Amino acid sequence: MRLKRSRTGSSCRTTRALCCPSSSTKTSAKRVKEVVHDPAERIRTLRLLMGLTQGELAQAAGVSQPMISQIQKGTKGVTDDLLGRIAEATGTPRSFFDVDPTDLPTDTLLFRKKASASVREVGRVEATVREAYRVAARLLTETRVRRTTLPRAEGKISPDAIEDLASATRDALGIAQDGVLGHVIRSCERAGIPVVPLVLVDAQGHGEDIVVGHSGVSCWRGQAEPSLISYFSAGSGDRQRFTVAHELGHLVLHPARRAGLSPKEAEAEAHRFAGAFLLPRVRADEAFSGPLMLRDFAALKKRWGVSIQALIQRAYDLGYVDNDRRESLYKQIGARGWRTNEPVAVHPEQPSLMRAMLARRYNEPPAVLQASEDLGIHPVLMRSLAPENAANPAPKKDANVISLGERRQRVARLKAL
Known about the structure:
Elements: E1 2-3, H1 10-19, H2 23-36, H3 39-50, H4 54-61, H5 65-73, H6 80-90, H7 119-142, H8 159-172, H9 184-190, E2 195-198, E3 200-201, E4 207-208, E5 216-220, E6 227-232, H10 237-253, H11 263-278, H12 284-287, H13 294-304, H14 308-317, H15 323-335, H16 353-362, H17 368-375, H18 379-385, H19 404-416
Parallel strand pairs: 1-5, 2-6
Antiparallel strand pairs: 3-4, 5-6
Helix pairs in contact: 1-2, 3-7, 4-5, 4-6, 7-16, 8-11, 10-11, 14-15
């Protein structure tokens, strides 16, 4: 699941215009800003975030569905009164609608989706990731976090080149070539790459963990601009570690190589990178010596924090087992019920960079509501991006959250007074 943006896009041209000191350019930049500021687009983004249809949003805000439809088509303007109604009904800060939508990466999000995933679910994921990236990029700039330059793949690459790039990435992140990687998320965050759990805001304003398909997403706007890694919080620690390493692989392998590369090819390359990053080739002889029974892979999992299934694939990639042996081991895993519940627990890792940036900007503990207002983001999503407890970043369903129906009733009572 990748998201990138060309540095020659419209928002970059706008930024250059705003930086020019001439009065004529300032006037031009002002006109551009007026054109790109589009609260109607932000209304659409809010609908996607919360999984709301036009009719559901209209009902929540106490307006007609045709009005929302006309606004989305661009045939009717957006009034301050309507924005206030929508903000009140959905628990969204009014500043959400003042965000310039062109600040968001605009390329299509590509990720594996379950066959049962609805268009609404996919839209929620895409909108959530775009908002997370927007906020993370702004905080990186405002708090002046130093970012490490990652190796970048160019042109056609071989499996051996991916191994070398994984090794070069370890060097860039200050990780010993032959060492066990103790904390994958922290390694990324030390390089200035925010890593956040992916939690969706549902129609009642609650946080919701769902997995539409692929376990994570990496996004970038350009090769020299900030990047973000996010992951679905459900799952084991070894799955989380591999997901983050996989998305780091996309950041190294694909910003300059997306053209002409199929999603399947990109995923295979990122998988190879993740295996090489987590268990370096220089330790392979030691790790994969001997007959390699399932118990041996379980022992390796305990040491390296990599799933048994991923270790089997790693041994196959490096030629320590052939395809027949790999398939035999996978069948044994299936027969034992280990496909989704492997032995040897690996604890999930705790992200910290987003919370540290919020603390630097809004004191510790961060004032979530103030940050939500300043950054123009739903408070539930703001809280999920910088969780106190990464194992459960979403507010529980029975938390003190007002539903859309309750908000409508409250608004009606206020009007009656």
